[in-house]
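Entry 14. Two folds queued back to back today. First construct below, sequence then structure tokens.
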Amino acid sequence: MTADTGSGAGASSDAGAGSAAGSGSVARKPSTGGRIKAFTILAVLVLSGLTFLAWSQSWGSLLIAGGTTTEASLDVPGSAAAPALSALGLAGIALAGALAIAGPIIRIVLGALEVLLGASVLWSALGALGDPVAAGASVVTTSTGVAGLGSIRELVTAGPASPWPAVTVVLGIAMMIAGIAVVATVRRWPAASRKYQAVTFEGAGGRQSGDPADFFDDEPDDERDEADERDRSYDATATRTATAGNAETRDASAAKPPAGEAPETDEPLRRARDAAVDDWDSLSRGTDPTR
């Protein structure tokens, strides 16, 4: 009985450990939306890189039908046959990076841009496939000095073709499909990481702010209002006191006699002073004041 009980406990513990491990593996398993996002972004990135690679490859050759040149054929690179592919490929690579951090609305816009990029790649490749002589006209002009599409057509003919124009056609179609997939599945993608979003701080009471200094003011709102009211009252009292002091100073200045003059507090002294002034005026005119 004891052995059976021990073995049962061991089996249950093993089962519990296995279920825990299984649940952990399930928890670590990426969601369907995450897999769709990763696959779509990877597809956009790979297709854009291949488009840039096609721009650097040979797209065929042109055979010289006559003239004085000793060259029998001219190689036509993708940079001459479809010069826009380099810019389109780089734009697609940048778009893949933007998809990883953009929000839902911006992802829809980026998906539409990917469709336009794919259409542009397709148009460039079809133009080179439809008229290889016109696509390599710049190469002929550089090598022989012959200008003008009519003269070039009389001078050269299309030679062996390269698979890269056809590959580029497929890449353009695939880029358009990838853009449509972005627009169609963007709602199933997980939200972008908060690493690329603006930082917002939240206090214990649910208050949010972008400035952490706002949370270091622990003084209640009522106390702050009372302190502000006291400050305003003190300022008003100080202003009234200063105004009254200035008025008293002006009154005292107006009541003060001019410099050099004594205050007139005694009427006899004033009369004696006036009499002395009159006598002095008489003497200055040559008149004897005693007569």
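Second construct, same run, same settings:
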Amino acid sequence: MPPAWIHIFRARITDHWMGRVSMRSALWVNVVAVNLVLVALSRLIYLPGLYGYDTLVQVRVLVALFPLAVTVTVWQLVGLWRAAGLDPRAVRLRPLIRVIVAACAAGLAVLVLFTSASALDVARSAAGYDGLGDYRLQVVAGDTLQVEGDIGFGLAGRVRERLSAQPAIRRVRLNSIGGRGSEGVLLARVIEQAGVDTEVTRGCFSACSFAFLGGRRRTLTPGALLGFHWKRPGSFITDLELGWHLRALFERAGVDPAFAGHTFQVTIDDLWIPSHAQLRAAGVTTGPDSGI
């Protein structure tokens, strides 16, 4: 026979779904308390290195948890609606609770529709078909790891392996139009932990600019460009969590808070390419100023 706690757990789920718990219990325990626990646990998904720097594992976890999160939310809302109707002590608050539940249900529907395209993209990546997986690694001059192409899932892990296997590497040269924001932040952490420099010789944009911030010394050659943006409508991976890690990255890199704050206001359609002087003044670059 299943342990007693399983029977209690099943009964709790069923009772909430059918509205057989008090409205207070449904609201404060099954909705508020459960959501606080889930939010706390969700932060673990974004801990750098939790998956051995294999972000494909992280993506697969996210894909698996997304429908579960939707299911839990539906269970919470339906149970709260029913509890508000069946609990005789909830007569006064019933209209308010039902308005709140209806608003939350509408918001959930909009969220699912809004993120569906990105969710499918991430699901394809989880299955091993990443449209942004065309990256190339090459060691040049014995001490420079050149990274070109997309910032796709799995790149941070590959760079980490290469840096561990070849300790003579002292610099990571980044030239990329960007890619996965979460991978860019994770790649920055890999570079940061290795204690190597970063350099751009042509162009480093979007997620690539996040990775650039991980360098001990950060330089641009004359004519090289560094471009930033943040907001991407319909992002499947939680912007709140990714933004938290990116803000922490800006702080560790010693970047001017005003510069970092402006980055979060730039949309994907309005790529911001600061001058070399601006980058130097804000602490984004730390090497010799090219004068551009």
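Quick look at the second one. Residues 18-126 form one domain. The radius of gyration is 23 Å.
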